[in-house]
Amino acid sequence: MRKPGSVFAVAAVAAALSACGQSQSGQDASNSQAAASAASGTSAATQPAMGEAEKKALLASYAAPYNQADLANGEAKFGLCRSCHTITPGGANMTGPNLHGVFGQKAASKPNYNYSDAIKQANITWDAQHLDQWLADPKGYLPGTKMTFAGLKDANDRRDLIGYLMVETGFKP
Ligand code: HEC
User: Band of the pLDDT at 49, cuts 50, 70, 90?
Assistant: First the structure.
């Protein structure tokens, strides 16, 4: 427990040095926030999960038709990918590579993943349009790929899944 007098002295010294009184109190506030979330058992130590409102706002910022995506259906369709892919930041490569940050990234650029020659030579930068074609028919789009996924034929399901992937991988337009 600090005595009120010593807090005042610290603030006064900090202010005298270069007006750091503000950041001193800001730090105290974030420390107590961290303590509060640790106490409530959340994993805020790594990265706070996005809330529903934040996800909706992010989705609304995307170009059509992705701003119309049904995230619940997208999440359900991601069930088709989950056995081979993680989407969390730094998630493991499994049969397929981790997909975090895939939007705006060149195909076959995750380190420590052994891609097929077909995708390494494809010279694609992933965006919603390329993903839409890829997910409709991976082997038709990139003959020789080792992604053994039959394809998602319904265009609305692809829109929903891509919208979901954009939000979950933190894509900012
Ligand atoms: C049976 C396993 C499997 C399933 C199911 C699967 N994938 Fe893949 N995926 C792979 C493999 C393997 C690769 C690497 C392809 C290569 O090297 O040719 C890959 C590659 C990818 C890539 C390219 C990543 C990069 O770094 O360039 C994307 C994007 C992708 N998958 C998305 C999906 C989505 C979305 C789904 C669900 C609709 C899905 N995949 C389903 C195995 C799978």
Answer: confident
